[in-house]
């Protein structure tokens, strides 16, 4: 099949390379000339494990352009543009712009993969007069190719059976269970899934707060409750909270959408509030072990919003950095991939120069650092260190002082 992809970020590129691997012809379109040029030279604009290799393997079946007319004979066109938050609400302008441009040149079925609030696919249908399917993705950064090839489920929202069948056929190689729904339901499924996961993490983070008061260990609690199949062990790691390009944006989008239609998602709103407090928690623990931070050098280990990515969007680590600066600390940082305006140094230098250390992202290379860190004030914000190997000036999220 000839397949168009509009929006060449992590979702668009993962969709593109995975479908190219299945033998389809891919035409990728993006308004960002630099991005398109890079891809034409086989350079992906983002770091994602396996992406560059997959792009190279399938390069002869993939074309990239800024020109929408290259979509003219595509049978399916995925919309994978971003849907950022503006003034606390989802901004759908990029989706609608893409729809208008597609309408001018193409006749294929539109499949929306961007995360959009219920009713968006219906609006895109009104704009384009083409068949529109809602086909949300659930991929995690750092696992994007795997999650696209082997999803837990494929959701196909369609008010047109034939169009839905076509998209279902496209993903049949994944062998994943297929849920056929209306477009509104498919759009809501994505928000319900992400909100539930965000709630789960905020829930365990509240239990972590309680553990710190009770001299309990949240990891023990999480392990025990996670063995209950109804709860499951996933997304129960207490830490500095959730960041990234999805959870913060999507929880805001769905809570404001709910209010706009006259409902209040109280649990999701509470999860957001709990999450906003996490950087303050890190600072509180640091002050417990090193006193005031003013005039001192604090090393933040990890800036990415989670390991195995260079993405710092909505990263809690950067919120911690800002808090430390507001408190008058001098901040230095080390991250294997991510960069920011903080002074970046090597891991060893970061530890040597620091008066205090906060571990903000659970990169694998931070495990086993106990001998190097022992004796310094340290806050383990992601539970990567063994508390038994640390000294007195050590605090960890969800672990009371023993
Ligand atoms: C998420 C969803 O998992 C994915 O299905 C959706 O399509 C996009 O949003 P992603 O943003 O890549 O993917 O990150 P994910 O691995 O889900 O982690 C989200 C945040 O939660 C990270 O900041 C992570 O550190 C935090 N987290 C996750 C925890 O603090 N504890 C956990 O137990 C799990």
Automatic annotation (TrEMBL):
A single GO molecular function term of this UniProt record: NAD binding
Lineage: Archaea, Thermoproteota, Thermoprotei, Sulfolobales, Sulfolobaceae
Pathway named in the protein's UniProt entry: Nucleotide-sugar biosynthesis; UDP-alpha-D-glucuronate biosynthesis; UDP-alpha-D-glucuronate from UDP-alpha-D-glucose: step 1/1
Enzyme class: oxidoreductase
Organism: Metallosphaera prunae
Keyword Cell cycle among UniProt keywords: no
Protein name, as recorded: UDP-glucose 6-dehydrogenase
Pfam families with a match to the protein in the record: UDPG_MGDP_dh, UDPG_MGDP_dh_C, UDPG_MGDP_dh_N
Keyword vocabulary terms for this entry: NAD, Oxidoreductase
